[in-house]
Amino acid sequence: AQRVTQPEKLLSVFKGAPVELKCNYSYSGSPELFWYVQYSRQRLQLLLRHISRESIKGFTADLNKGETSFHLKKPFAQEEDSAMYYCALSLGANNLFFGTGTRLTVIP
Amino acid sequence: EAQVTQNPRYLITVTGKKLTVTCSQNMNHEYMSWYRQDPGLGLRQIYYSMNVEVTDKGDVPEGYKVSRKEKRNFPLILESPSPNQTSLYFCASSFAGTLDYEQYFGPGTRLTVT
Q1: Is the predicted pLDDT of residue B112 greater than 70, yes or no?
Q2: pLDDT of residue B96 exceeding 60
Q3: pLDDT of residue B106
Q4: What is the C-alpha separation between B13 and B110, in angstroms, rounded?
Q5: Nearest Cβ partner of A43 from B31, B58, B108?
Q6: Cβ contact (<8 Å) for B48 and A95?
Q7: Strand-pair category, B19-25 with B76-78
Q8: Would an 8 Å CB–CB cutoff place A30 in contact with chain B?
Q9: Distances, alpha carbon A79 to alpha carbons A29, A37, A46, A75, A104, in Å
């Protein structure tokens, strides 16, 4: 069963435009959700986690339990935001279930 | 420097020839895991380990073995590789049992099985 869905494989936005990367999950309990990012030729790294309610590099993500969503947003995209973004769900015991990823391209 | 290392980074092999991909972490993490990354499928977990001598299957364990004899190492073994195991493999580690379980990833191993 698909636990995490990222409907967009590719997303292109112009520099300075708002960006939203969609993530929906399927889990009836209290989820732990994360966004991981993979920049070109770099290893996968944590961008943010919902439990800390933090903003990293201008990105935020709000957990909406009613819509079972955890969309990643940034008001003004920068060229250095171009990367592969993965939404991930933890059901406990450290195991992460990743979505299929969205490749974001920010056009100068 | 705190890190997860994998070796080799690139490997081309033939069907049926046993191989091992090593993974090592220097952060004293209890939890370690292996993922494979395929286009359109994202990252899928192969095996994970909660501590020494404790391993369990992930979503796609078929054709793989692991062992955890030491806390810092978690090798991935392909006893008889097949072409459908051609993929990019990532090892990851984290502390276990806390909410602050950010996973730290290795640089990846690109495996091609012909």
Answers
A1: yes
A2: yes
A3: 96
A4: 11
A5: B108
A6: yes
A7: antiparallel
A8: no
A9: 37, 14, 19, 13, 10
Query: Is B44's pLDDT higher than 80?
Result: yes
- The predicted-structure confidence for A39-75, as pLDDT tens digits, reads as follows 998 899 999 888 777 778 889 998 888 899 999 999 9
Nearest to B103 by CA among B41, B27, B47, B38: B27
Q: Single out the residue of B105, B104, B43, B99 nearest to residue A32, CA to CA.
A: B99
Contact B45 A90 (CB under 8 A): no
- Report whether pLDDT(B100) > 80: no
Q: Which of A68, A99, A52 is nearest to B35 (CA)?
A: A99
**Cα–Cα dist A103/A93, whole Å:** 28
Contact: B102, A90; criterion CB under 8 Å: no
Poorest-confidence range of A76-80, A88-92, A97-101? A88-92
| CA B26 from centroid of its chain's CA atoms | 16
Please state the separation of Cα B69 from the chain's center in Å: 15
Chain A residues touching residue B59 (CB < 8 angstroms): 97
